[in-house]
Amino acid sequence: MSSSGDPALLASGTTVAKEAHVDRSRAGFDGYAVGLASTHRRLVSSLAKQRRRLSTAAGDVVFCADDRDPEALRRLLAWKSAQYDASGWRNPLTDTGVVELAHRIAGTTSAGFGGRVSTLRAGGTLIAAELHLYSTSVCAGGSPRTTARSRPIRRACCS
User: Fold this and answer.
1) Low-confidence ranges of the chain (pLDDT < 70)
2) Which of the following CATH numbers is that of domain 3-158: 3.40.630, 1.20.120, 3.30.450, 3.20.20?
3) DSSP string, 8-36
4) Residue 39: which H helix or E strand, with range?
5) So where are the chain's domains?
6) Do 126 and 75 form a contact (C-beta atoms < 8 A)?
């Protein structure tokens, strides 16, 4: 396999939570990585290039699929709120009930339903986060939020 299609590049130099909810092939993370590398070579190559660029600019890159740090969710909600404010759309995050619901969902870890906050950190700094809802049959995520510093790499790392 060429270096651009090497599934090891997905995790090479990047700490990845392999217990992540990445099980499309039922072969776990390694099966997912191999399948992704074989069907989406350009994507894998682009991700590896962006990871190297980010690592050079900001330090070690760490992705966590289920980050239980409460500060990560608070930062995500603050970034999302700022996005709503900047866009002129009504900001649902001004409603304390919506914020409380996001915290309750993120804190739920039952087998049938729950929430996960996925994070990307570079040099120890949180640069992107996304809240996912999951059930026994569905894993759905919202729009990832990133810092202004990481926006040039947002599509490669978080979309």
Assistant:
1) 1-29, 141-159
2) 3.40.630
3) HHHHTTEEE-TTSS--TTSSHHHHHHHHH
4) helix 28-39
5) 3-158
6) yes
